[in-house]
Amino acid sequence: MNDTNIKISIRKLYKIFGNDPQPALKLVMDGMGKTELLEKHNHVLGLNDINVDVPTGKTTVIMGLSGSGKSTLIRHLNRLIEPTAGEVWVDDENILEYSDTQLRQMRQHRMSMVFQKFALLPHRTVLQNAGLAPAIAGQNERKYADEARRWLDRVGLAGQGEQYPHQLSGGMQQRVGIARALTSNSDIMLMDEAFSALDPLIRTDMQDLLNELQEELQKTVVFITHDLDEALKLADHLVILKDGSVVQQGEPQHILLHPAAPYIENFVADINRARVLRVRSVMQTTLDTSHECAGDIDHNDTLESVIARSEGDTSLSYRVMKNGKAVGMLDMRKLVRALVPSEQSTDTESARRSG
Amino acid sequence: MATYDFIFDGLGLRNWCGASGDDSGGMTSMAQLLAQTSGSDTAVSHWETPFPSMDAMHEACTSFPQSRALTSGLEEGFLSIKNSLKVVVDPLTQPLSWALNEALWVMQVVPWFIMIPVLMLISYVVSREWKLVGLVAVCFGFLGFVDYYTYTMQTLAIIFVCALTCVVLGVPIGIAMSRSDRVQRTMIPILDMLQTLPPFVYLIPLIFLFSVTEPKLYGIAIILYAIVPVVRLTDLGIRLVDPDVTEAADAFGMTKRQKLFNVQIPLALPNIMAGVNQTIMMSLAMVVIASLVSAPGLGVLVLRGIRSLELGVGLLSGLGIVLLAIILDRVTKAALARINVSQSR
Fold first, then answer.
1. Which pLDDT tens digit goes with each residue over B156-172?
2. Where would you tag: which of A212, A308, A314, B25 has the fewest CB atoms within 10 A of its CB?
């Protein structure tokens, strides 16, 4: 918890919905599952022993299907929902010990939120919506207008400040939502299925926008999604939830190559691995880079781009560069093998070894 | 001899009752008088067994109270607390009398050639529709032409004061209801009662409480009757505010107060305005009944029509009330439509 790279730290967090959660909590801690708890005690297990560290300045994506507790989890980070047990540390302070005033201060200045259904104020202009956080803190429109307009420009809504939200399309409304979160100047941005209500093309645009903003601003983003493609596109750190528990968390590339549970294998089976996997995840780290090679590739290139470059020739191998230094080699054959989900690839490997 | 003698005998209460059939002291019922005049005390067949009511019990046991003792007891009870009640209620409601008197005075002092343009201007400011302004001009022109101008203005003054009071009291009550389920649970039966109780019923205790010459008598009657919709719709409106938006307000750290004034009330405004519209309509309906207790205005004419069977007066004043209702309804609905457009969800 004293690690400066960790912005938010969730420790042993439990949430049980029902009339009398404390006895139910004891049962859950003794190992009772979600279905049994619901059938026998009529309590819903929302979150079960969550331990997650959110790194500073990175995008942490929490992914799970509906009912996995991901929206419940993100609402614990700013205490829109109170936990049944556990701790949430933000900047080395346990926010569950905060008074109402401290909590409001944190929500106004240190954490902002973007919502699935935009949740803009329909009776206020786009500019007033974007300036919600300073307005709540007591600034008048003239004072916050410049800042709000700057962020509206940044998300691509220049000159739309005087419109009302209902005059904008869904994608534009969510841009206002993002501008509203940015105008608050908070370090932490919580995004609750922020792009799920948008159609696919606009969603891709918004993901690109978020990635761009992240490169520039390096906020600590906690992003909720049910879409694995989106998760892999945005995540620096990926947390996969199922039935209120963390199934696996870590670097997305690592999860993709080494799924810890059948549940995740099923999940990643449908993914276009060539587009998601990067050279650094499949290369051989070797200092001996003197082999003959077809050329240099960057360690962050996707496998897709390497395949395109090799024109499908599996006999080649490439030298992998990181910041201008050679860090390893990539054999095209190994690359192709990585495109098949791990179970099969290990099978073939062992088959080859025995054969 | 009475049907229910056995109850008191069985319970051993005969001594408390005194001698059976001895009517001395108790009030004599009409049935007993009739029985005395007919002089026959025939045995009652089982078919005619009376319901075990208070009067039937009284027949068996004179110490048991008659039902008329209940109603007279209620009356005496009310009369005995009347004075102390008046000490509290009188000063509280006095401003209503003043407001009604002032409004009536203003409406009568301002000459018609100023008043009608002012009303037209108000309807324009509220609705921004020239058609409505025309309607207002035509209606007031007609009512003035048939010499009902003064009555119309009196009715308008009463409605203005009463509807305004309803809003000022009703909106905060509605807000309190929307915030607490307990307040809502206690308020809803009261509102149901106010809405269904025949207005004449609460006119009676009001007449005992205040003198008939005081304007607040009919003011209170109108307010009690008309306040219900604005309370209900404020409660409903705030409860219907999109929970996503209120959650966003929480997530950005609004205080409860900021949330109420910046989010909940503005978003509930269409519903609140619908409540105001209904409140105005209901106070207009009550104006006629209130003229039974000296409320001036078109209601007096309607009453005259009924009392002395002046068909023409009754019909024309009824038409006047309808015209007033149409104007008030259209103007408030136009205001409502303007709010809806600016929010259009």
1. 999 999 999 999 999 99
2. B25
CA distance A56 to B47: 91
B340 touches chain A (CB under 8 A): no
Distance from the A187 Cα atom to the nearest Cα atom in chain B, whole angstroms: 14
pLDDT (tens digit, 9 = 90+) per residue, B108-133? 888 999 999 999 999 999 888 899 99
Give the best residue of A82, A123, A140, A192 to mutate against chain B (max B CB count within 10 A).
Answer: A123
Tens digits of residue pLDDT in A133-158: 999 988 888 899 999 999 999 888 88
Residue B147 tokens, joined: 């010499």
Of A80, A106, A111, which has the smallest distance from its Cβ to B247's Cβ? A80
Residues of chain B with pLDDT under 50: 20-25, 345
CB burial readout A342-353, b (16+ within 10 A) else e: beebeeeeeeee
Of B248, B258, B266, the CB nearest to A119: B248
Q: How many CB pairs under 8 A join A and B?
A: 64
With CA atoms as reference, the chain A residue closest to B258 would be A136
For residues A316 and A334, is the Cβ–Cβ distance under 8 A? no
In this structure, the number of other CB atoms found within 10 A of the CB of residue B61 comes to 22
Q: Within an 8 Å CB–CB cutoff, is residue A164 touching chain B? A: yes
User: How far is the alpha carbon of B5 from chain A, nearest alpha carbon, in Å?
Assistant: 55
Across the strands, what pairs with B204? none
What's the ipTM?
0.82
Q: Which two tokens stand for residue A221?
A: 């983003």
CB contact under 8 A, B245 and A120: yes
Q: What DSSP designation does B293 have?
A: G
Its pTM stands at 0.80
A72 touches chain B (CB under 8 A): no
Q: Letter for the amino acid at A216?
A: E
Per residue in B256-292, pLDDT (tens digit) is 999 999 999 999 998 999 999 999 999 998 888 888 8
The DSSP symbol for A18 reads S
Within the 174-233 window of chain B, which residues sit less than 8 Å (CB to CB) from chain A? none
Apex A220 CA angle, A194 and A230, nearest 5: 40
Question: Which residue is it, tokens 């995840």?
Answer: A281
H helices present in chain B, as ranges? 5-10, 14-17, 30-38, 54-60, 67-109, 112-127, 130-145, 149-179, 181-196, 199-209, 215-239, 243-251, 256-259, 265-290, 298-307, 311-343
Tens-digit pLDDT profile for residues B1-17: 577 888 888 887 777 77
CA distance A156 to B116: 52
Q: In angstroms, what separates the C-alpha of A104 from chain B's closest C-alpha? A: 4
Query: For chain A, how many helices (H) and strands (E)?
Result: 17, 14
**CA closest to B248 among chain A residues:** A119
> In this structure, are residues A195 and A208 in contact, taking their beta carbons and an 8 Å threshold?
no
Shortest Cα–Cα distance, A88 to chain B (Å): 16
A3 token code pair:
């690690």
Closest CA to B143 of B155, B133, B132, B131: B155
